[in-house]
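#dry-run=false #mode=assembly
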Amino acid sequence: MKQSVTAGVDIGGTNTVVGLINDSGTCVLKSNSPTLGQGSAEQFVLRLAEAIRQLLRELPGESTLGGIGIAAPAANYRKGIIQNSANLQWKTIEIVGMMKQHFDLPIAVMNDANAAALGEMRNGCTKGMKNSIVITLGTGLGAGIVTDGHLLYGENGVAGELGHVIVDPNGRICGCGRRGCAETYVSATGIRRTVFELLAYNATESKLRDISFNQLTSEKTYELAIQGDPIARDAFLITGRHLGLLLSNIAAVFDPEAIVLSGGLMNAGDLLLDPTKESFDQNRLDLKWRKVLILKSHLADGEAAILGASWLVTETAAKEHDVPAQMEGSLR
Amino acid sequence: MKQSVTAGVDIGGTNTVVGLINDSGTCVLKSNSPTLGQGSAEQFVLRLAEAIRQLLRELPGESTLGGIGIAAPAANYRKGIIQNSANLQWKTIEIVGMMKQHFDLPIAVMNDANAAALGEMRNGCTKGMKNSIVITLGTGLGAGIVTDGHLLYGENGVAGELGHVIVDPNGRICGCGRRGCAETYVSATGIRRTVFELLAYNATESKLRDISFNQLTSEKTYELAIQGDPIARDAFLITGRHLGLLLSNIAAVFDPEAIVLSGGLMNAGDLLLDPTKESFDQNRLDLKWRKVLILKSHLADGEAAILGASWLVTETAAKEHDVPAQMEGSLR
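#status=ok
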């Protein structure tokens, strides 16, 4: 019997994840490659198409591809494009149109954080919840917000920019041109900036003193923190404090059942989660009867987004664009 | 012909507004009295009932009262009570039950900021809008948030606590026990604190130096600002700057079509609105194609809340609790 699968793609600022998802919402095969590289948007899309074909070849037994769901920063579902993303090198990519030149199938693109929120609802931490927030901590800080079972979309489809909440008006300069945005502190790039601030401020010895700004990754910082490097440990502590305060404000505004933390930076696990929870508890609005869960996504890197994006395609194709209620928001 | 009216009540930290609203959503008669005073919650409810009866007597021609909608801080619609309000002197008031001893009619209570958001949708600035936020600037800072045509309610019905977003972790002590909450800067009590900070910091002459903290009202501050008092003017400027930054963050999170400013403090008009808009423009996430309107409510003080609360009662009574979609949120 032929297996029916959908492809999910998560285009991140650093890596792009491609996966095949079966009908029960399990990712059966996945690959990961750098997003950036020489060449045009056409060549990038060609690489993506080839990555999907390669996975299909690797899948045991016969299979049919039912559609492709793409998650990307600054995606516009209605127009089928990725537009002015701060973290991608191409200005505008007509991703759906370009992908259709390779596959004659239902294809859709949606905001990556919204896709992650759908993915967590489909097969992750927030299954069955009506009010939840998924925070993605990668190159930037994104958020997919579900209120009363629906994705929060806003008037123009750009709600949920928690990464660009100004937490310090005199703070760090952000890629958006302003100062003190949350993602300049809480993201993979944010923790790198914190490391360099600590290196400047302290006199402590640290292996981080031998690594250049451009060379430093959050993975390396994690590795050194585990080895006991004091600067690396402090960087996670400070990042967690910022994140906990941000989450306490988010909880006051949205009153969610749970906030799920995901993305590359969360590979640091308890090293980041512990100070985050501690800071959340210190700062949260004390409604004694209310409990807001702070959870780490148990899905693998990028998996929530590909589950969510592919779900969008499966469900819209099955229902001839009469999409399930929880996705409505993502479809304007 | 008998005129059919509904009563709307807005219980504020300082004043309580009672009004009669006709079927077309116009407030035909209104009274205003201090909320605080000697006595028990029973005596307060008795005064409220008497205020409603007095308005009915004053109304020309014959009339029938169809129901009473009450807006209050920390109200719980489901339980029909006001619970642990920071700005009221009574711990818990079983307001619906107590009011029913005076009137055998449909009676409901709802959160005041949500009521204001419904009132603005019914007959104010946000008529026909799907994504809007109403901010009430009184003793505290409240917010009623409408996303995709529905009131934002959250998992426990306490979403929208924008007044308790921490804007400065080392900032002013708040009634909630934490530090730096938005309402310690942006509210009638916030501007008073700003005045006293300015009196302490500056050496400038000011008539404000003759007024005690407890005597000072935002009305007096406004009056002196209009007369050119430098401290009073600065207090409005600083309050506007805080508010503009807060609104820019709210716009990044919710992507609303409009944010409406209402409540007693907005009687200052352009003195507060101008620096607010300026600060909003300086701080907003620069999405050139997006326009977020910052509006001053054109409804009289407390009128949005009584319009909204009475609408709730009219509509629920008419439809036997099959309430209109936009109110769903307020009914859990």
